Amino acid sequence: MHIGLILDGNRRWAKKHSLPTAMGHKKGIDIFQNLVEYAAELERISVISAFALSTENLQRDAKELDNLFRLFLNFEKRAPILVKKGARMRFLGNLALLPTKLRDSFARVADMTAAGEKLVINICIAFGGRDEIVRAAESLRHSEKTITEELFQTHLDAAQTPNIDLVIRTGGQKRISNFMIWEAAYAELYFTDLLWPEFSAAELDKAIIFFDEQKRNFGK
């Protein structure tokens, strides 16, 4: 089962608790780490794709982005836990838009966790669904092959993983906000008013129960 996560509400959680925005992002990453460790113990979930930072988010205040980038560097410190859990971490998106130091750290994390077979974790950063499709189309522009959906999909960032089964969005908004729009074409959508730092393993279980109750016919 491939679950997509739109991690919405970190900033609102910080404001709700009279904390700096950076503390909301830190809490959000801590919650994500806990959820990944829980998911690694389940038999159901094989892939988690998390919307960590969109291409649009890159237009935010420079100070907020710098704080986020420093937090993302902590993935390297947490990598040994992922290795122990049998999890592999990949980074998807237009990574050329990110600082070199961050890209280098991501490459080391991907290398350290490459042997993980129990759970794949895709961190979507500097990512936009439309941008992903445009980059895939550009890579095929001079192809002499007949372009099919199957061929096109091999040029997407998430080419090595199955399409998303369930998208979970926290924060009360009911939209997917340019998140993996190709991969989530037939995904079930689960929305909750909980802010991301309020999400938990128990809430993930509720979302999976919702998924199990859906009849999926893929248009047939």
Q: How would you sum up this structure, described in words?
A:
The protein has helices at residues 10-16, 21-41, 62-72, 75-85, 100-112, 129-139, 149-153, 201-212, and strands at 2-6, 47-54, 87-92, 119-127, 166-169, 188-191. The chain is α/β, with parallel strands linked by helices. A six-stranded parallel sheet has the order 3-4-2-1-5-6, sandwiched between helices. Helix 1 (10-16) packs across helix 2 and helix 4 runs parallel beside helix 5.
Described by its quaternary structure, the protein is single chain
Strand content: 15-25%
Overall pLDDT: 93
User: Counting H and I runs of at least 4 residues, what is the number of helices?
Assistant: 8
**Share of helical residues:** 40-55%
What is the chain-wise order of helices and strands? Answer: EHHEHHEHEHHEEH
Distance between the termini: 21 Å
Q: Round the Cα radius of gyration to an integer and report it.
A: 17 Å
Low-confidence stretches: none
Strand order of the largest sheet: 3-4-2-1-5-6
